[in-house]
Structures are given as structure tokens and as C-alpha cells.
Give the backbone structure.
Amino acid sequence: MTNIISQQLFNVTRMYLSNYLMYNKNNNTTYLSNCLMCNKNVSQQLFNVTRMYLSNCLMCNKNNNTTYLSNCLMCNKNNNTTYLSNCLMCNKNDNTTYLSNCLMCNKNNNTTYLSNCLMCNKNDNTTYLSNCLMCNKNDNTTYLTNCLMCNKNDNTTYLTNCFNVTRMTTLHISATV
């Protein structure tokens, strides 16, 4: 059951990210908070898979990216996606080490690529994602592993530049979901 839900989550999130990581290229502070509130149809799909975990949480705290993730990603402890809801509650006071400390759990299901990748580079949030998300190229999350390896030196334009580099790939993936 966990494997099925994890695969559904990958498929939905794949389309979600590939369509919306184009916004707000000039300000990383509000980038996530502005982007991840769009497309209610996809949010509804996420609701069906993760019981409002992403669709409700990722809309809060528009003004402060430092506490944005730490305050939002604390919901939905009761379904099969508890690995995220349980992990992403730690280290509320320091976004630099927040993700690197939290996303190390649940190595046994299909979400292993996250739990294994997001343990590196705890001391530098600027290069954190760009250095970590390069593993597990063989499954359906290849669009992430390919895209999130570029532009390691500038977190401000990191995601926006990656999307542009692999736009044709990600749009193709989203169209096939």
C-alpha cells in the first residue's frame, strides 16, 4: 500500500512541479510561497493522494521563507505518507539545517531517493539541494535528478534555471502523467 501511494505521489508531484517552478525568478524568498498555491486541480489530486498534506500546508507564511517550510510541513500524520509529516517537523528555528536534518527517514519504500539524497551538505543551504538531489536516476523521478543538478552556485536562480534547461523534458513528463 505504501508503494502504491508513493508512486501516485511521485506521478502527481511530477506534473505539479514541472508546471509551476517557473515563477518568481528574482526573489527566492517568496518563490516557493507564491508558486505552490496555484492550480487547485492538482492540489485536489494531491489531496486524494496525501490527504491535504501538500495542498493545505504549502500555502502558509508568504513573508518569511526562513520559517516557511518549518511551519507548514507538519500536518497529516495519519496516512501512509507519514514519513514526510513526521520528518518535516524538526528544527523549526534554522532553515539552513532544517531539511538536511529531517529528510533522512523511511528508507525502505519507493521514496528512498529522498531519504537517501537529502542528508548531505547540512552546513550550507545555498548548495544543499543542488548537491543532494542527484541520485536514483532510474525511476520516474528522473526529471528531478536531472534538473536539480544545475546552477549550484546561486540558490536564487537555481530552480528557475534548472526548469528552463529541462523544460522540454519536464513538459513531456507532465503531459504523460
Summary: DSSP finds twelve helices and no strands in the chain. Confidence is low (pLDDT under 50) at residues 1-177.
